[in-house]
């Protein structure tokens, strides 16, 4: 199981991403638009840099909802391979069958 602090830090980052998503998108649109004047683009870039770093989407780490494990994460199921195997063996995931050949 991952450290509780790392899991909580990741949750806080997720909240910041949701809070600043629209503002970041608007500023990014201004900076990437070649038709806007260079002074305005530079000003938008400075405003973007002034926003909190943890408000960026790439700073959020995909973590298992069950254990908090950051690696071997299945996006579709929102859990790690280890948690998936445990729950599958216990019969708690409908439709999941252990393969044998």
| Percentage of residues in helical conformation | 40-55%
Largest sheet: 2 strands, antiparallel
Counting DSSP H or I runs of 4 or more residues, the number of helices is 3
Gross morphology: elongated
**Gyration radius from CA atoms, angstroms:** 20 Å
Mean pLDDT: 93
In percent, how much strand structure appears in the residues? Answer: under 5%
Which stretches are poorly predicted, pLDDT < 50 over at least 5 residues?
A: none
Oligomeric grouping of the chains: single chain
Organism: Antarcticirhabdus aurantiaca
Protein name: 30S ribosomal protein S14
Keywords: Ribonucleoprotein, Ribosomal protein
Give a short overview.
This is 30S ribosomal protein S14. This protein is mostly helical. The chain has 3 helices and 2 strands.
Q: What does this 3D model show about the protein?
A:
- The chain has two domains: 1-61; 62-95, 30s Ribosomal Protein S14, Chain N (Irregular).
- It is 50% helix and 4% strand.
- The chain has three helices and two strands; from the N terminus they run ααββα.
- The chain has helices at 4-32, 38-50, 81-89; strands spanning 73-74, 79-80.
- A hairpin with a 4-residue loop joins strand 1 and strand 2 (79-80).
- The radius of gyration is 20 Å and the shape is elongated.
